[in-house]
Structures
1.
Amino acid sequence: MAEKIVTAPLAQLTPEMVLLKERFGDAIQPAEYEGIVIANDRLLEVAQAIRDDLGYDYLSSLTGVDYFDKGYFETVYHAYSLARGGGPLVFKARTPRDANAAEIPSVVSIWGSAEFQEREAYDMFGIRYTGHPDLRRILTWEGFAGYPLRKDWKEAYYEQDHKPFDSRWPGGHHVPAEERVQFHDNVTVSSETFNVESFTPEAEQLLYSGIIPIPGSGNGHGLHTDSVVVNLGPQHPSTHGVFRLVVRLSGETVEDLKPVMGYLHRNHEKIGERNTFSQNMPFTDRLDYLCSMSNNFGYALAVEKLMAVKPPERTEYIRVIMAELTRVMNHLAFCGFLTNEMGAFFTPFIYAFEERELILDLFEMASGSRMMCNYFRFGGLARDISDEFVQRLRHLVFERLPQKTDEMENLITTNEIVRARAIGVAVLPRAAAISLGAAGPLLRASGVPYDVRKAEPYSIYDRFDFDLVTGTNGDVYDRYLVRIGEIRQSIRILKQALEQLPVGEIQTGKKAYQTRVPAGQAYGRVEAPKGELGFYVVSDGSPNPYRYHVRATCFINLGSLATMARGGKLADAIIGLGSIDTTMGEVDR
Amino acid sequence: MSDKSQVPHELKDNVAVTPWTKLFDPLSPIYNWGRKYSMWPMGFGLACCAIEMMATAAGRYDLSRFGMELMRPSPRQADLMIVSGTVTKKMMPQVVRLYNQMPEPKYVIAMGACATSGGPFKEGYTVVSGVDKFIPVDVYIPGCPPRPEALLQGFLKLFEKIEGQKISTSPWYTKKEFPAIPVPLLGPDLIDLRKVQETRNEQPEASTVPATN
Amino acid sequence: MYGLGIAKGMWVTFTHFVDTYVQDAQYLFRSAKYRSSRLPERQGPKTARGLFTVEYPREKLQMTENYRNIPFLVYNSTTGQERCTSCGICAKVCPPQCIWIVRGSDPETKRPKPEPVEFTIDATICMSCGYCAEFCPFDAIKMDQNYEMGTYDRWNDLVLTKDRLMKPDTYHYQIHPSAKDAEAANIAKSEKAKNR
């Protein structure tokens, strides 16, 4: 692998980075490809300056990278300024790749969104973030052997470092994976020799130690009461998938709340390193499985940045059409899910799914599959859309969808029960939303007019005329209204895109099954229906990515759940969770 | 008492002896018809296949036509567990617990590639390669995700299986014990306690060695 | 007035309820077969109202041409010759690596022969992405539309070997009508490769 790493060019310092360098001197060094490296001992000072003096108040992405040959772990931070918009300030921190002493100071005190992301980097790489309030594993379980995303860590079914595997062709006699492995199963520890008696599970102890009931904390009425810890377990009708909440309740009031995730951790990033770039595309479908087109879009953008290709005009318009249709579909389904949580037993859900089925028919016509579309390619699309597609879309966009949105609003918006259960419930204040890295409708409902399509326009969004919908109070009702507003804006964009749709080819360059991506680092982000979905791709010039990280918006949005739920009733916490609109495939990857 | 030899000689002409099979099996079609058209699934929606399961339950491919629209959240009230989505090692103990809590007769459908065999994520380190590694599965439905029609066809296959069951041979009316499947442990990796018990049975002296680490 | 919002919502539900009987009234004295033949109309975006249900298994929706489920191999129905040359591109490009191919080789010269000896697809791993069909240079592997694959036994029924994967090109053109013209050039290329 050493011969692949050519000397990477050092980044050009932007004026802000030059300011930082003047102030902090040698602690700031230019990094490879982009950004600056900050020395660990002054990381907190510099981070404070970045947030307060330079105005980068929003830490969007924090990820670890294992540079095996160079001998260090790197944590890459992408910070944005909400007021100014525009591109990120990229900075990195490094620590030697020593098994026990990999430490970096934690930036949780500066940006709250680092809390879950640093736990994830610890879980995957073993980097200890000193000063983190609760550094436990988040996607795997406490007691898991090893740090999975390290380059020298091999999984049980490990065959080769990179696909395609040699065992499939030319001598590809079918051998099931179970028969290839020593223990005949996807485990690295033999069940037979495991010593059950001496095993103490640590996971639950560490989890509950942060949320133990305070005896006699009382409920303010002079009665001696205790609070109780309750698990809203991974199997629960209201948790939108496999997600667990540990709640400390005093009666019906939530005192504290800890989310436990990782029940759907499907090793997307490790598998992503084994895959080639184009093989990763169908796996991105399965991230936010309701909105597969948006996931494809984000990944295609990130890799096209590295390859420096631009798709043709028709492709850009079709991409926008698909992304906005996905947004409409997701927000309609959200109305169904939210009212489910409130108790409207499936009626709006069924109406929303009827419209969703019609949109899925369109997706199936274009891409071949209802949900896992796998439609985007680097520099183009898989196949063109037919005239029947455009006809059906015209009818949907100009007639049916506006009518159905009005119907959904008639059903829900003025309903007194919905208003009583949603207004003033699960409030997320503006400052907390920014600090905790909330994105998408969650951020806009708290009064921050930030949308990636307007702040850092990608594809051809700067050509369309649409408004940003924001809320004022940051409660559940505002999040619902923001999403209904976004459906209408999306229909507006769809109308414009349909009018302007050009004829032409749909792929830049020849379609090839082997994509060679030049060495580099890129962060491509889109405004997915749930929020800002980012893909951080590091390439070393080979057909497989060196590091592939997904900035999962639902994962980071869940960090706001505790703030929203504290002080409210348990049922309100459930509605708050529903209003974040999580999809566990993206939370756990 | 299924043969005439137990009857006293003088009563032989007045007593009719019918074996259990002849008595109950003609009722089996009605029994099975009632069971199969009122199955209550425990919609165990884990991942993407859960969305297709919801779409099956929604307006276009109605599950109410099969009597299954009541998706019970509680395993105690369900008799069909539709494992839809990838089962990860962290989730596997809960899947086994829920399966144990379901009352007999119970059926399991592995919906989708991931529940059948780990699917496209089979090579992952936290993915269980197929839910049938721990619980017995009745019908496998491949696809990623399977269309709602494919799920309905899987149900029809399950109904065929149910139609083939007879009251006289149904295990839940006998005195047979249904031992609960031991819940796997989350140690350094997922530990299957049945394999531990197997080796214990083979080498009984090993269990008397005290744990010294 | 308190309750007006709820009343508005109930009106929406009521109109949906009444809508479901409109079609029943239209088809009142028609047979179930007539109703089923109107399925595309009931499911199209312009005319879908009221009962939106597809009554599987009695009624089945027509799949669009692009729909993809599990792949199958194509052979020429007149000559019986397989199109696959065991070049291995589908096995290399498959994201979960669920295709196993043993390349054919000439017994005397030991050189590769353009015909697979073994071709196995593990349908329980396949993610229906369609890459194999998209990148096959000989149009030999295509995506099937048969979704009725529920089974009791996953090892015997869902690991598809070559004999179960081979289907005639008449079937392929039946489910993919626009493929016949599009593939004419590629067929010629494949036959040339085989006759070499």
2.
Amino acid sequence: MLRIRCPYCQEARSEEEFSHAGEAHIPRPANPDASSDAQWGEYLHLRRNPRGPHREMWVHTAGCRRYFNVLRDTVNYEILATYAMGERPADEPEEGAL
Amino acid sequence: MSGQVRRLASGGRINRDRGLRFTFDGRVLEGYAGDTLASALLANGVDVVGRSFKYARPRGIVGHGAEEPNAIVQLGSAAASVPNLRATQVELYDGLEARSTGAPVFQRAVGRLGRFLPAGFYYKTFMGSAPLWMASEPLLRHAAGFGRAPTGADPDTYDRMNRHCDVLVVGAGPAGLSAALEAARSGARVLLADEQAEFGGSLLAETRPLGVDGATNWVDKTIGELASRANVELLPRSTVSGFYDHNFLTIVERRTDHLGLVSPNATRERLHRVRADQVVLATGAIERPLVFANNDLPGVMLATSVGTYVNRYAVVPGETLLLFTTNDQAYRTALDWRRAGREVCAIVDVREAPGGELVAAAREAGIEVIAGHVVIEAIGRGRVARAVIAPLNASGDALDGPTRRLSCNLIACSGGWNPTLHLGSQTGVRPRWSEDAAAFLPGDLGVRALCTGAVTGTGSLRACLEEGALAGATAASRTGFGSGRTTFAAPVIDEPRGTPARPLYLVPHARPVSRAPKQFVDYQLDVTAADIELAAREGYKSVEHVKRYTALGFGTDQGKLGNVNGVAILARALGKTIAETGTTMFRPSYTPATFGTIAGRDVGEFFDPERHTPMHTWHESKGAAWENVGRWKRPWYYPRAGETMQQAVNRECLAARDGVAILDASTLGKIDIQGADAAEFLDRIYTIGFRRLGVGRCRYGLMLREDGTIFDDGVTARLAENRYLMHTTTGNAEAVFAWLELWHQTEWPDLDVHFTSVTDHWATAALVGPRSREVLAKVGADIDLSRDAFRFMDVREGEVAGFPARVFRISFSGELSFEVNVPAQHGRGLWDALIDAGSEFGITPYGTETMHVLRAEKGFIIVGQDTDGSMTPADMGMDWAVRRNKPFGFIGDRSLVLSDHQRADRPQLVGLASADGDTVLPEGGQLVDDPKPPPPVPMAGHVTSSYYSARLSRPIALGMVKGGSKRIGETVYCPLADGRILAGTIVDPVFYDPEGERQNV
Ligand SMILES: [Zn+2]
């Protein structure tokens, strides 16, 4: 069971207080009607599913109920960083690693 | 206690003043406090403790701990019965009743068929032959179990505890004790868990002194110091069963199992859920058996186990011992045996020239050492009587001379050691093969866990103590306690100089493996060396596949004894090294855990909490039948004496249509939405617009997922300029709330909007029917109830029956309707007042079933019943509820114009009229166009809602039919499982009052 640091509560808490909310940093297209069916389909459905560091959204469901970002290694489940909405972590890994 | 024929007259850590009586398979036997069931059975001379899984061969006790594969017993009977326990881990208590399990059942059921079931039999037979599997499954399932499920609810209580510590030490043997001591002295919070009742592990059977102390004195002193420290917690009888991510571990503590079968006034087992900063795995090692012909005969045991029974339990599990070994350490068992005054027939040593100090000691004691030899076969009926030995060639794969026979009734085997690396493996770290240690060792566990002692391949006791101390100091310092250097002075221990071991994983026989008597690798599941070679011949190359094909390691013991020999045999058959072949991974739980422990207190009414509305007790007093909606208990219908459900629902429906009826609608989700941008936010969330909705007005909206499918629906009211009240469906309230939070926090944090879930703040009574206005007037409301002052889709605040109230003129039935909301604490008062006031109008309470019939008559959908997550507003004929071209758009709007959502042949909502005018179509029934088509049959759709309508005196149904909106008047067919085929006519989904006049009266 993961131990996740909520950037808002500033506490590391057990996974059971949190819910996973999918891949992070997928902005909604500013003008949906301007996107083609293929572009819109990509936004809806296509996700990276990388082997290694992965940026994902979690929500502190049984805590402050805030959404935040987690950089988690999908191989060993280590959490490399957690950071608030709208931020990026200080120690950004190489883009290629993502 | 004359029955204990194999009990020594003195010695052992048993209490001879406390005799205990127990039964095994009905036989009354006796033992002592301090015995395990296994040691007591051996003391009583019980050789056979069960029959094997597949071949029904007699089996005896092999080990002395978690590794035991054969002595699987069931305690007690009926509800309190506990299956699947290892006799080696059951502490004896007075009155214990044990039965052997598994194999006799199999034998009776399958008879002697087992011998005709080669490796892969199940796999080959049943993967390819469905009919054979169907016919055989009940027999095999019945036959294949280890034990029986209890027959009633568990009478015991269990619980769960969360714990945190700096250092968790797993295992209280020599390495674990010194690790715990060192970590404790640094001031770190230490938790020490061991599966046995007594701490000490192998030290409890150790005959050498530790310094000036006996080994057990050293254990007592160490535990004394640990127990005296406030920063240490000791958990005996506690198996660390699982090691999960981020140093989360589970510990199963057995608190009362040693006292008796049932302890209703105590917690029987406790699951400790531990988050440890550091974990020290001092889990030791398990001796590796040797694989030779008939090595499953009772009387073939692990050498350490024999030594443990002699030294710790004062039990000699035989008379004449033959020791069969690949290493020096096992010689201790022969010396212990001799010290106990019993005969050692010989030591058969695989090595050409064993020469260590223990070997010399054995020779000095007059024990014959037969070097360069192996036991190729055990002989005996029901118990070992003789051993067949032969010289081994230099490469260890063939015999090198004639065989001869030795008389003995106990063969103690030692093929080296398998580190108990299960917990480390559970974290996903693959064990690695060490050629030096001739063993799989734990992989690199990173910086938050370390292994110490025998689990790392360390053999000497003194080294285990020293390494343990260093591990304890290291772990503590990583959590900020101490310097990482040890203060521990390891006691002086006589460590005899040794000679290297000679690993041997399969003892050759005079005949080839496939023709030799069975050479067992996995006792519990009857997997032989020949089975593994067969798997290799049949093309299986991955150890994981061979495991599944042969069932090697699939037993409840997870192959603690057999896996490494099995891997080595596979490696040889494949012409690969053991390192290349690799090992399988282990999963929790290390030993089986009871369901009770996992469930803890979350049983019965605590399994899943129920939600009750403020009017719940009223419904209960009226004998309501209940429907579970999410966690809510909702009245389903209110049967009167002698009424069937259909009669009750008919009566309730007619009351709502013709007079007045009342529904408890408190469970509907309610979200209070406020802020300057509340209207803008709702515009983006809902398909319909809210910006121009007047204060005091309500509007129905559909909520879509971003892919355009319907997620929720409901009525939202504008209570003030910047304040709305959203209604959600009962079952979706929490999901909708989370949905609003998601969009607000991640996409539109700039919008000034706030949400509060107020579902529980309000109680809601829906007054429904042409006379509802009269009831409301009678109960007293300071609201103008006239048709033109209080219009359909208006909301008003005021007082109803003296309570502060919000009244919505909305309708889910198509009738005149007032939904009266009052603060929850007034819910029951309001309800009673309405029932009172309504009595002269024949007010009738109704439940969810009637609610469904009324809405279906009107063609109103229920999200989640008529929709299934793939339906758009257009599919449901609800384009009227969609406003594209809002300034910002709304969630899902772009998806509505995707080409797939425009297809004309998408399933569309239709009404269905039973062709015979009488039969209610089954909900979920599949619809086809052709009543007698050749397969495969193309599906036309399915029935989503179906009821008998009392108002219309005929069945009505809603369904999804491909292209259905253009097929009004056509016939579709609903084939039933019983062979009948019902016909239905596609009609408009609005069955009643299509103009919607009735709600506007
Ligand atoms: Zn938080």
